[in-house]
Amino acid sequence: MERHFDEELNDLKHRLTKMCALAETMIGDAIKALVQRDASALTAIQQHEAEVNRLQVEIDEMCFTMIALRQPTASDLRFILGATKTTTDLERLADQAVNISNKAERLMKQDPLKPFVIIPQMTDIARGMVRDSLHAYVNRQVEKAREVIQRDAQLNALKKEINAEMLEFMQRNPATVPYALDIVLVAHNLERIGDHAKNIAENAVFVIEGKDIRHGTENRPAA
Amino acid sequence: MSAAKENVITVSNLDLWYGAFQALISVNMAVEKQKITALIGPSGCGKSTLLRVLNRMNDLIPGVKITGEVLLEGRNIYAPGVDVCALRANVGMVFQRPNPFPLSVWDNVAFGLKVAGQNSRAQVEEIVERSLRGAWLWDNVKDKLDHSALELPLDQQQRLCVARLLAVEPEVILMDEPCSALDPIATAKIEELMLELVKQYTIVIVTHNMQQAARISNYSGYMLLGEMIEFDETSRIFTSPKDKRTDDYISGRYG
Predict the structure, then answer these.
(1) How far apart are the first and last CA of chain B?
(2) Spacing of C-alpha B61 from chain mean position
(3) Cα distance between residue A78 and residue A82, in whole Å
(4) How many Å apart are CA A40 and CA A153, to the nearest integer?
(5) Distance between CA atoms of B18 and B60, rounded to whole angstroms?
(6) For every one of its 223 residues, what pLDDT tens digit does chain A have, with 9 covering 90 and above?
(7) In what order do the strands lie in the sheet with B227-233?
(8) Which residue of B has its CA nearest to A71?
(9) DSSP secondary structure letter of residue B9
(10) In CATH, what number is assigned to the domain containing residue B28?
(11) Distance spanning both ends of chain A, measured CA to CA
């Protein structure tokens, strides 16, 4: 039986998807400005961030109202609780994109220490994780959610690689320190984006299976 | 490790037929002592039938056939020679509509005691007062114990029916939609009373009000077409039921 409540839940899914698409665009734009030294890529970032913040408040308000008026249970309740956590992660990962854009503004005025290779790789992985985690969440795809969680390790490894690379530049030539440090921070921002996407994927598992797998609890024996 | 559960009632492989119609199909259920167990499910699913099995109220219906086992404190209540009146005193029932006898408030509560041969006036008085207090009714009726029970408001009549049970000191109280005739305030009072009673008694309730099951019960059983689809802790049933049919029912997708 299709319920009127399902229309509200679909509206919620639609807004989450919109929020996710905006955040993903912000990440892409910030990195494009950095890698292609293209200042025009940053023009929409502030506006997108404002929109993401607005959607977070709007979605949380929707969830709050639905809990109060509909008294959801079981999978509906898990979806709505999960949605409020997901908006927090989406908003925070969008903030990471803003952090990257701030560094990009400085960095694009200078010649890079070397051609960008790892940062674009990390960006592809992080954006994919964001997109797929939310897709898994709204479409109840538990396999996809678990696969996103696995991808986080790749980001962590690439971040270590970039750290080692930048350390070498800084040791060889202290004049590179300001630039190299910013690159280390960009890698850190991308890695944090992956962490937020992982949270969303863990939320998806909770919504679909009712199982809380945060903090590696899934493989830990029961107390 | 938590303490082992003490089950008052254990239902095993229970089948029940009304003539040719099978109303209960291989039902299993354990009712834990001093807990509230709620039976939920759509109309006709067998939840009231199952409730009535627990104190053999179905015996009164012609053509009923039962197989399987129902143990109360380890004893089969369907075994030959079981004293059904004693069983029903031990496993009392509160019905959908309050059904006080057309007698005074006092006589309603004392009725079971008289039937049981309790003749000491002092003792009957003590038990009547204790039972009315136990059902949170004493303050409402202490000045009108000789009034007809039918003059009381509906929720007080329902609590009088509870007091009538308490007088004969049952172990288990069965409640068949006890709030369906009551307004929300009266319902809240009965629910609070149940939460108080469960400190001493074991309660099994049939309810159509799922929020009521969620609010007050420790265990919930979801029944559909005569089968016990899922039986688990209420906190589990209303957050992460295992069976999709349970999820669909409690979230209103059923039908």
Answers:
(1) 41
(2) 19
(3) 6
(4) 33
(5) 12
(6) 678 889 999 999 999 999 999 999 999 999 999 999 999 999 999 999 999 999 999 999 999 999 988 889 999 999 999 999 999 999 999 999 999 999 999 999 999 999 999 999 999 999 999 999 999 999 999 999 999 999 999 999 999 999 999 999 999 999 999 999 999 999 999 999 999 999 999 999 999 999 999 988 776 654 4
(7) B91-94, B172-176, B202-206, B36-40, B219-224, B227-233
(8) B211
(9) E
(10) 3.40.50.300
(11) 40
- Count up the domains in chain B and report the number: 1
Task: Look up tokens 């709030």; give the residue.
Answer: B179
Chain B interface includes A113 (CB < 8 A): no
Flag whether A153 is in a domain.
yes
- For A57, what's the count of Cα atoms within 13 Å in the CB-facing half-sphere? 5
Which of B239, B251, B254 shows the shortest C-beta gap to A210?
Answer: B239
Distance CA B209, CA B56 (A): 25
Check: CB of residue B206 under 8 Å from CB of residue B175: yes
The CA-atom distances, in angstroms, between B36 and each of A220, B204, B221, B234 are 32, 6, 11, 10
From the list A184, A183, A124, A131, the residue with the least C-alpha distance to A155 is A124
In whole angstroms, what is the distance from residue B218 CA to residue A23 CA?
43
Cα–Cα distance measured from residue A35 to residue A114, given in angstroms and rounded to the nearest whole number: 11
Task: Provide the domain limits for residue A204.
Answer: 4-216
One DSSP character per residue, A101-124 reads: HHHHHHHTTS--SS---HHHHHHH
CB contact under 8 A, B214 and A73: yes
Give residue ranges of B with CB < 8 Å to any A CB. 210-211, 214, 238-241, 246-247, 250-255
Look at chain A and report how many structural domains it folds into: 1
Which residues on chain A are in Cβ contact (under 8 Å) with B1? none
Q: Which residue has the tokens 């609590």?
A: B159
Domain CATH code at residue A117: 1.20.58.220
A48 domain-assigned: yes
Range of the domain at B215: 7-98+172-250
